[in-house]
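Protocol step 6 of 9: fold each sequence in the batch and record its structure tokens directly after the sequence line. For illustration, a two-sequence batch is reproduced in full.

Sequence one:
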Amino acid sequence: MTIHSFFIFDRHCNCIYNREYGHTPQSIPSTSSSSSDTIPGQINKNNDSNSSKLLFGILYSLKTISNKLVDESSINQLKSFNLGQFKIHFYESLSNFKFILITNVEVEELSSVLFQLYSEYFIKYVVENGLSPVEFSETGEYSKINNGRFIEETDKYLQSLSIF
């Protein structure tokens, strides 16, 4: 069981954070810090790639379809779905930030983990950070989350999970 990727999209459909985890010794070292216990992988390298745009499109389409299948009186939420050999876990905050984890198929639903990432780490290190932008732009310096503390703490939290 493995976590492969972690994505955050803002309310304007922009990928503002992308973390890919390398679970093999040949992986590219992390750029988040210079310590020897960093998790291998890439940070914010594929924010503008077609794969992140396709992922957002799939989630948007599935969420729209699932909402149209039920009557208006019931609450219907897309939490996870399988796609080939991967399972995609999804959480959307009230402010329309979308948190996505991509794992192996065997992993149980991770909505509580995604809520924890939002409520404990995103709120604390991004939203409440006075130096962080209120709105993320499509390009430029404020187009993605580069907060080292946020990256470090989310990596520690995800690494502490038994599925990592």
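Sequence two, same batch, same settings:
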Amino acid sequence: MKRRIIMIGRSMAGKTTLCQYLSDQQLKYKKTQAVEIINKNMIDTPGEYLERTYMRGALMVSAADADTIVLVQDATENGTMFPPGYSSSFAKPCIGVVTKSDKATEKQLEDAQKYLKIAGAKEIFVTSSYEGTGFEPFLKYFEDK
């Protein structure tokens, strides 16, 4: 992946696990405390930056170095932290990734995709880092850009 992406989502949404999977690292839980650059092309952000509205400015600053915004939605979460039209804040291409698809019901998967569409994600990818599913179309998206 040549484009730099920023992962935005609430705590425990799977942003760090997604980064670990994409960079062929061992999957293990690690709480992200600050913005981290992984393999020079992924920006991992703390969930608190989205969860606390007074910290959202830090996401705007961190996103300045990204080519693509990736909104990360946990499929098993009831509800979302992304307001309608959230992606328009960035003026950059925005995609959505649904995580933890292996733990979700069909209804939860549908809802997660709906939340991401409402937030402004133009394309949505449904993934499971633990099963290794859904990543081919995600990676192809970046090859085509």
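Proceed to step 7 once all outputs are recorded. Observation for sequence two: The domain at 5-143 is CATH 3.40.50.300 (Rossmann fold).
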